[in-house]
Amino acid sequence: QVQLRESGGGLVQAGGSLRLSCAASGRTFSSRAMGWFRQAPGKEREFVAAISWIAGRTSYADSVKGRFTISRDNAKNTVYLQMNSLKPEDTAVYYCAADREVTRLYVSPDLSSYDYWGQGTQVTVSS
To answer: Which class for 55: exposed (0-12), middle (13-18), buried (19 or more C-beta within 10 A)?
Structure first.
């Protein structure tokens, strides 16, 4: 089992930056790919970024490429999402998630690949 808790959300002006953190408990964190997803009001939850369990392989949604960076520190059981050049359309609740499989060889953008979810953290970008 993996338990996840996000932090770092808040209100920021357009063009600003935030860093989200996701602290994980459980012995298998370092063996699982991790993802960030977001859900805006009235919209479905969507993929933002993911990072593999080893070798730092990453994947990003086109809408955040070049602005967001996902990273992880397995010694601290934490995954991060650095968000720069924020836009009002980035406003959403951001969730971190852990892959349902251990040692998966690729990173998946599909919600169905993730079985463990945090409670979410609100990010609001004002124009």
So the answer is: exposed
- Residues 8-52 have pLDDT tens digits of 999 999 999 999 999 999 889 999 999 999 999 999 999 999 999
Burial grade of 62 (CB within 10 A; 0-12, 13-18, 19 or more): exposed
> Are the CB atoms for 71 and 79 separated by under 8 Å?
yes
Would you state the structure tokens that stand for residue 35, as one six-digit string? Answer: 């993802």
81: which residues sit within 8 A by CB, 6+ positions away?
A: 19, 20, 22, 36, 48, 49, 68, 69, 70, 94, 96
